[in-house]
Amino acid sequence: MTKRKYTVLFLLFCFQLFAQSNDSLNVNFKVVFDRFPLELNKRYVSTKKDTITVTAFKCYVSDLEIQFADKTVFKEKNSHHLLDLANPSSLQIPITKNSDKIISKVTFNIGIDSTTNTSGALGGDLDPIQGMYWAWQSGYVNMKIEGQSPSCKTRKNQFEFHLGGYLQPYNAMRKKVININNKSDISISIDVSVFFAEVTLATTNSVMIPGKIAMELADLSSKMFYSE
Amino acid sequence: MKRAILILGFGGVVFGILAFSKSYFTPLYFEVPKSWPQPEYDFKKNPLSEEKFQLGRHLFYDPILSRDNSISCSSCHAQATGFTHVDHDLSHGIEGKKGTRNSLALINLAWNKDFHWDGGVNNLEVQPINPITNPVEMDEKLEHVVAKLQQSSKYRNLFAKAYGDEKVTSQRLLKALAQFTVSLKSTNSKYDQVMRGETSFDAQEQNGYVLFKKHCASCHTEPLFNSDKFERNGLAVDTALNDLGRIKITGRKEDHLRFKIPTLRNIQFTKPYMHDGRFKTLNEVIKHYNSLGHDKSLPKELAKPMNLSDNERVDMEVFLNTLTDKTFLFNPRFQFPRE
């Protein structure tokens, strides 16, 4: 009995130490290509045998929520994060204080909700200067994937996917729920190879408006996110 | 106990700073005329102040917003003509390049839900991103504008007055511009004076008003003389421009050739008319609507012929002239800011 007590005390002590050394809980995103870290301007080959170079990868993650095993929920306020592969610090999001509670789920939206999309001029990660805003048809781009592939018979073999749109029936935001089972930082992979495994680049290589194709690709973008 | 006193003391200081900083700005009150609808614009998210209004006014008249410092908002939106581009069917921007549409009048924007002829812009605050970045208008980048303003001592000073510090951000810039444009309110035309019982229409104006209510007011609804809706109005597509209207935004078949129903206030001075400025005179506009009817592709409001006589068309135009508001067109607060 006492032995058990000591174990508990020891564990608590450890957690205390842990909390002191690292007092924020992070959600860390890792952009990968088939489980290898994705590097910009490097060549990859998709399962469709397309040779692909990605020159830009950006996306919004919003309304982050963490559910703990004890059924409590942490909701981040004003939760809008621009993940930009060219800016590694943007991929690590400290969201709350570390606790010793077991995390069971993390939920978030890929993209920006319709209320935020109609809220006028915003700042920070939502500043239109971030290059993720459409002017002529107000609204945020939820995900941007740009690059080159010889499979695209376009100018400079470029492909451009700007996925967005908030007006029904073409609301391209996607909700994602990821099951977790640990206490510390959450690691989520965004696998770009999942996207290129299903897109036929010869015919679909430039999507820059809301609509049916953007909706299909948004479904696909949601499959890119998984827990490590 | 000591701790509690400390917290209280600290709270007091914070409150003092907040109270002081608040009194630093001069609040403005946006008056809504009696019996008018509530504005669409959310003033709570951008409370009006004299300092922000003045900053917005300077920005509105300053070509610093364009790539080569040649074009300002007022280039296509001049006050004396209801803040539109008079005598140009299609507006021209940087290096004389031409766009595809007639610039809209900036009148009573606080009551507008959507902006642009196709309603593609959903909030007044984000509208300026369009002319600033459009290659045939100002052809500039928003981040360049922010950098140029940050380098200008005049604007550092104006931003400090408006926001309490010199930092320039796109959000502050856009919100200040919106403070100016949302304040462009026209509520004192002869029509308004008649409605307030201060004067009355003459016989011709009165007859025109009756005809207007019968034939036009279902879309150009009083007292704003516009509507949130988008409609077809029987104009043939200009094949050089091939502008299909709202369908470009919504992708919906029913929005084919639908355009914004703009306000008719100050219409006497906002010529030329229609989305592509194809009519130079109001007479031509009225003639166009008088020529419609018996066409299934038209909305029900236009499906029945108006059959106006020549005299009635004149009366209609005489009534439309009562929507002219000289106190708005010559309001010194809306003029180029002289330093």
Automatic annotation (TrEMBL), chain A:
Residues of the signal peptide: 1-19
Domain of life: Bacteria
InterPro entries xref list: MbnP-like_dom
Biological source species: Flavobacterium sedimenticola
Record-annotated Copper-binding protein MbnP-like domain positions: 23-208
Keyword tags: Signal
Name this polypeptide is given: Copper-binding protein MbnP-like domain-containing protein
From TrEMBL, chain B:
Family annotation (Pfam families): CCP_MauG
GO MF term list: peroxidase activity
Keywords: Heme, Iron, Metal-binding, Oxidoreductase, Periplasm, Peroxidase, Signal
Localization (cell): Periplasm
Cytochrome c domain span: 203-324
Gene3D superfamilies: Cytochrome c-like domain
DNA repair in keyword set: no
Protein name, UniProt field: Cytochrome c peroxidase
Phylogenetic lineage: Bacteria, Pseudomonadati, Bacteroidota, Flavobacteriia, Flavobacteriales
